[in-house]
Amino acid sequence: MAIDITKVLKKNQSALLEKWMTNQLADAGLRDDLMSNEDLRVESEELVNSLVSAISYSNLDNAESGDFDQVLEILGGISISRARQGFSPKETGLFVMSLKDALLNLLQQEVKDAKELYTLSNRVGRLIDHFSIATFETFIKGREEVILRQTDEITEISTPVIRVWDGILALPIIGTLDSARTQVVMESLLTEIVETGSSIAILDISGVPTVDSLVAQHLLKTVSATRLMGADCIISGIRPEIAQTIVHLGIDLSQIITKASLASALLYAFRSLKLEVRKVNDGNRFAVKN
Amino acid sequence: MDRIPILRMGQFLLVTIQVDLYDRLALDLEADIVKMVNKTGARGVLIDISAVSIVDSFMGRIIGNIGVMSKLLDAETVVVGMQPAVAITLVELGLPLKGVYTALNVDKGMDLLRSIIQDDVDTADTDDDDDNIAE
């Protein structure tokens, strides 16, 4: 006669939770620095409740069944929040794995027939394995989201458009220029040109470690786009090594105004805007005159 | 049928494109501008595309063509007010619009046209005098 697993679990629900909690708390790797025991208990209880109410003899082999949607949802929520809190995959995995131990333990106590116990344990084991995999998947997804967000933030932060003077924008680029970043650089530069009505943009590449043909192509694109907007683009901060690579790669930058330093680019910009910087004799201040 | 107005402003023609150009409209505009340049003897064409948000390779080529054609009729073309997205698209399409001047806005475009023409007059002063005598 088949054992009614639903009944067994319902009857022992609180015992199961206790056992699971003991299992989890006994683990030496428990991260009570990241999460308090009370929180852990609340999470565990929620999961046990929904699992016990979802499980039945018929869906035991079918983890894809809609009955487990809520369980998977809770698991997903838990693993994503753990990924954000900085738990390791092992710790997250053990969270679910220890539930399996508790469940099997419980079955061992309740089911006396050896054959019955064997098949039931197998099936419960498979079901929990499926949940573990689902947990891992969401855990990794959560981590990837965190990484993606950070990448975006870094791209945003690392390409500030600075108004160095009325009509002159500077854009120091720090780090490697790939297609995605060039896009961000280009967009933020062009938008800023429109907003400020600047007619000169200085692209400073002193923070770019290497310039290969692809990076050069990206730079050329940015310069052309700036020109289409009606502004001039100066590339500054070309280090000697970069000048060498550019020539060795046969990249033609002759159509572009290039300067060695941001200072000389700024000087050029002042000149083309017909601004003059000079030292005022009385006092040590600088003044710009039209 | 739609038609894009071409206004005369002294020596220059002012074209403000306020709708997204479709192919037929762009072709008509090209023909109209060339005819107008010829008729009025304009020295410059200023095209304001600040309201254009969508651009394709065809339109990019038309703008380039207008520049080249006007140049043949001794008029310079300045395109002003390009949206960042449009500029990026054109660059990605490989259409840097060589032969067309660009400026940020109508004001700056007018200044640019004036300075180009001023330069022309300065360098070709003697030629102009000869023409006057011939007339």
From TrEMBL, chain A:
PROSITE patterns the record matches: STAS (PS50801)
Keyword line: Phosphoprotein
Keyword flag Phosphoprotein: yes
Boundaries of every STAS domain copy: 158-269
Pfam families named in the record: RsbRD_N, STAS
PANTHER family: RSBT ANTAGONIST PROTEIN RSBS-RELATED (PTHR33745), RSBT CO-ANTAGONIST PROTEIN RSBRC (PTHR33745:SF3)
Protein's UniProt name: RsbT co-antagonist protein RsbR
Species name: Mucilaginibacter auburnensis
From TrEMBL, chain B:
Signal peptide extent: none
Coiled-coil portions: none
Pfam families cross-referenced by the UniProt entry: STAS
Residue ranges of domain STAS in the record: 1-113
InterPro entries: Bact_StressResp_Reg, STAS_dom, STAS_dom_sf
Protein name per Swiss-Prot or TrEMBL: RsbT antagonist protein RsbS
Taxonomic classification: Bacteria, Pseudomonadati, Bacteroidota, Sphingobacteriia, Sphingobacteriales
